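Lab meeting notes turned into a lecture example. A postdoc, R.K., suggested we walk through two folding results consecutively so the class can see how the record format repeats. The first protein's sequence and structure tokens come next.
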Amino acid sequence: MLDELAPPAHAGAASPTTIEAGAEAEERAVELLLAHGYEVVERNYRCEIGELDIVAADGAVMVFVEVRSRANTEHGHAIESVNRKKQQKVSRVAEVYLAHRQPRYEEFRFDVVAITSDRARDITLYQDAWRGGL
């Protein structure tokens, strides 16, 4: 009886389809960044407070790249999901990254790669998408 009431083992976890879609979005983002002359430094940096999708270098600037994707625009464009709360979280994780990795960059910025996978399969790079406290 209790087994019937227990949540499935994967409750709260992303489904395999969601994980695959996220991985595909990140691959597309990396391709776009490379085409724009970025050097990918690290992917999926994780710490106790969150994750950075992509850490890259754009010349002498270290760039923290947030990748957002949506299947369609029914609930808005992917860029709209990077709200103030998300920006603050990514900024805090970037601070941890800088403390742990101590990269040799004097300038930093936050970019967003937004992907909509509907018929057009739009992908857009938003450079300097917000100002963090770095």
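The second example is placed directly after the first for contrast:
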Amino acid sequence: MQNFHPNLIRLLVFDLDSLTVNFDQEKWDNFRQFLLMLDDRDFETLLISGSIEASEWESFAKLSVLQSTAENAFQNNPALSAKDVFWFSEQPELQKKISRTSQNFAGSDGCTTQNGGLQYQHLHDMLQIFHPSRISAADLSANLFKLKQHSQQEPLMLGIGGPDECGHSFFVGELTDALEDQELLVSIIDLSQVLGTEFQKKSVSTDKSSSSL
């Protein structure tokens, strides 16, 4: 998934028959909250299941349902293999088929990574990628724009960090796009690479000093 970026994704597809096998009422409620957060980010959502009622999901603005098996839906709808579509499924065979096209899929099964997708422990973990912050990039960029107006001649520096798995790199991408949309000049410096270089230099010099003694 080297070319994957959430900004390029338009449609999120959920294979409900494989994702909700052991769902009780609490898990269904949590799943609906999960979809509400994605709905807030303006993603289109498609729920696929052999037995699903559209009336149960009418409260969602950009959600559609399809009564079918996920594999049949994938085979019979070429649009579902487009580069701007992301799948959630636990079916290894379906994952393999998706991997031959866009490779945009996720699941919790151990085979997911082997098939070329993103593996998560809990479905809500994917919010780190598709909803990295309750403060949207648009809202934050608007606040930064206001701050910049108070010091137009001085650069405004903003540091965003965290472990690789927290999804901050995706948020930085969204924030950069939002700032550029406001015609602000943005420059990104990856300090981890800079600090890594300095650390390596110090290590080399230390090794040389030790060997000379």
